[in-house]
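Design job #97: recover the sequence.
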């Protein structure tokens, strides 16, 4: 059985006393030390924290804190000889975990590179970076762990659960290979003197990513996510390198892939642009039937690799020269192609366990057979996210790739996922992601109030903005960078999300709006079905111009369910306002000629919408309103 385990990090709890660092202590340190050292008042939060945590005289602690503007994300550091650990700090005197966003982004893009790249190859005018390197030069053979600590006054659990920070954190963890490279001499020295049975992964440095609260009522709880690290056995391998990109082809046991999915959950699929679509391999039924025959001894395990095209994954770090045996170490693996295969594998294992109950022999046989059944696996290592995106696209060509699939992992989409997630609403930025969630997944993430889809949200925002011509050109909206940014505006993240949810639901009652208008005048409004997008824009404007808009979004903006009251509201708007706006706007000769000639494309133009809004302004005192 291969050595396969996931490295874990600990959580610590310090008994509460008073606030660990108080505002009074910060002010006192600033008043006494800033005349000589300079720096803002907030920068002395780090000075006091390091002084108290490591029992360092307050004036000496200033040597470990950044007082300049240029810090590449880090605010301070400390080498703890007792714990054999290097601490890299980010300090925020705030209870808002999102104040860490820019720092995490800088650390992932520049900070890790500046600190851990070869010091002889870089010059830097940052006092903090220079100091860190100076300490590293003297202590690199003693350091066993590297901590990146984010210290603030809020709840670490909120920071840990943040989709945005988690997304940016991946870019930081992607740079662990820089740490491994920096300390390579130490690792080699340890390997030279190690016992033959020592495992390599116990010799490598541990990167620990922590959020720490300064608040008394939170007990300074530290929350640290596990770094997924696996040592996997394989039979044969082939390696191809091109510049900074590397491909290793191996045949991995299905049991190992199943264990990785069991432990990592949906994180295993984060790099995939879609979730659980047909991946161009065997059908679900064929996979299950083949596995069933293998487990029951009716077919040899080797046949599975012949039937299956294989899967593709990426890893932050990859090392296939661990020892004389055939094994490979991967850190934070992610599936690029083969999601559906792994999901079906999990289903098969769960069904087999339910069918056989607690029979030990059956479970051992299942594990043994799946450990002997291998699938070709292409493991790609690259620090270039754009390159990995191209690899993912080219590995998913068996199904048409829609432009919104390619935007699934954009930071703005992660922001919307977090925004709606706080309401208990699932934001499906990756196609098919929601339907592939298990009941346990749904319970753990708490999305009991419905789903918002990325494409439909884009169309809702366009309708709200009055971009009627772009609603039907939704593919180009996601392909055109300026259109895309204009649609998903950063300021929408500051809007009460209940407003977005309320307006999003309008699209599901547009047919009711159309029927209501047609029922009043079947012939007169026979064109209403062709004016769907126009009525969508006007319905949203009607709602936002309503004096009771605030009451409405409080009532209808908490879930995706369509309430009877919402339907009645939209039907009332249709019968009392929208039909009159249409009638009075299209009475002029130009529009009548269009309709008599069967030309209705004008209904999808901004000119028609603008004319309707002018009518609405005259009749109902509307103003063009945006969020």
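Job complete. Output follows.
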């Amino acid at each position: 059985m291969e050595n396969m385990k996931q490295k874990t990090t600990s959580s610590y709890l310090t008994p509460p006393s008073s606030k660990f660092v108080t505002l009074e202590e910060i002010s006192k340190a600033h008043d006494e030390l800033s005349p000589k050292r300079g720096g803002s008042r907030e920068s002395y939060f780090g000075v006091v924290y390091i002084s108290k945590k490591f029992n360092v005289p307050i004036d000496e602690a200033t040597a470990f804190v950044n007082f300049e503007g240029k810090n590449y994300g880090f605010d301070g550091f400390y080498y703890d000889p007792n714990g054999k650990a290097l601490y890299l700090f980010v300090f925020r005197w705030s209870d808002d975990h999102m104040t860490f966003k820019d720092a995490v982004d800088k650390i992932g893009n520049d900070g890790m590179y500046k600190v851990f790249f070869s010091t002889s190859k870089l010059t830097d005018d940052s006092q903090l970076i220079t100091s860190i390197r100076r300490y590293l030069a003297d202590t690199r053979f003693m350091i066993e762990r590297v901590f990146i600590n984010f210290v603030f006054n809020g709840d670490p659990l909120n920071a840990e659960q943040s989709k945005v920070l988690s997304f940016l954190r991946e870019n930081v963890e992607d740079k662990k290979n820089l740490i491994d490279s920096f300390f390579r001499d130490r690792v080699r020295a340890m390997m030279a003197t190690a016992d033959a049975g020592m495992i390599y992964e116990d010799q490598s440095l541990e990167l620990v990513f922590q959020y720490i609260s300064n608040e008394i009522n939170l007990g300074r709880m530290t929350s640290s996510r596990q770094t997924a690290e696996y040592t996997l056995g394989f039979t044969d391998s082939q390696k191809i390198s091109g510049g900074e990109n590397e491909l290793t082809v191996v045949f991995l046991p299905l049991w190992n892939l199943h264990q990785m999915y069991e432990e990592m959950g949906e994180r295993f699929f984060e790099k995939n642009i879609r979730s659980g679509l047909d991946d161009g391999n065997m059908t679900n039924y064929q996979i299950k039937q083949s596995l069933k025959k293998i487990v029951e001894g009716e077919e040899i395990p080797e046949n599975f690799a012949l039937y299956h095209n294989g899967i593709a994954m990426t890893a932050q770090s990859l090392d296939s020269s661990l020892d004389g045996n055939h094994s490979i170490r991967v850190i934070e693996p992610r599936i690029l192609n083969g999601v559906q295969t792994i999901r079906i594998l999990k289903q098969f294992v769960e069904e087999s366990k339910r069918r056989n109950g607690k029979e030990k022999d059956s479970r051992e046989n299942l594990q043994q057979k799946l450990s002997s059944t291998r699938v070709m696996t292409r493991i790609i290592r690259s620090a270039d996210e754009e390159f990995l995106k191209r690899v993912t696209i080219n590995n998913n060509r068996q199904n048409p790739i829609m432009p919104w699939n390619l935007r699934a992992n954009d930071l703005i989409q992660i922001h919307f996922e977090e925004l709606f997630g706080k309401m208990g609403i699932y934001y499906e930025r990756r196609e098919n992601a929601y339907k592939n969630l298990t009941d346990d997944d749904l319970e753990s993430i708490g999305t009991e109030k419905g789903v918002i889809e990325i494409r439909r949200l884009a169309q809702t925002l366009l309708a709200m903005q009055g971009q009627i011509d772009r609603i039907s050109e939704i593919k180009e909206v996601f392909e055109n960078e300026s259109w895309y940014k204009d649609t998903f505006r950063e300021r929408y993240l500051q809007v009460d999300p209940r407003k977005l949810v309320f307006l999003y639901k309008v699209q599901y009652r547009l047919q009711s709006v159309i029927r209501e208008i047609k029922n009043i005048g079947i012939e007169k409004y026979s064109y209403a079905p062709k004016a769907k997008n126009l009525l969508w824009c006007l319905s949203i404007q009607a709602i936002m111009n309503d004096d009771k808009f605030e009451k409405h979004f409080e009532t209808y903006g908490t879930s995706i369910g369509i309430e009877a009251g919402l339907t009645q509201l939209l039907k009332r708007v249709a019968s009392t306002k929208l039909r009159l706006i249409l009638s009075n706007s299209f009475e002029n000769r130009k529009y009548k000629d269009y309709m008599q000639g069967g030309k209705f494309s004008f209904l999808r133009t901004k000119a028609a919408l603008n004319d309707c809004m002018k009518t609405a302004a005259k009749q109902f005192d509307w103003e063009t309103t945006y969020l």
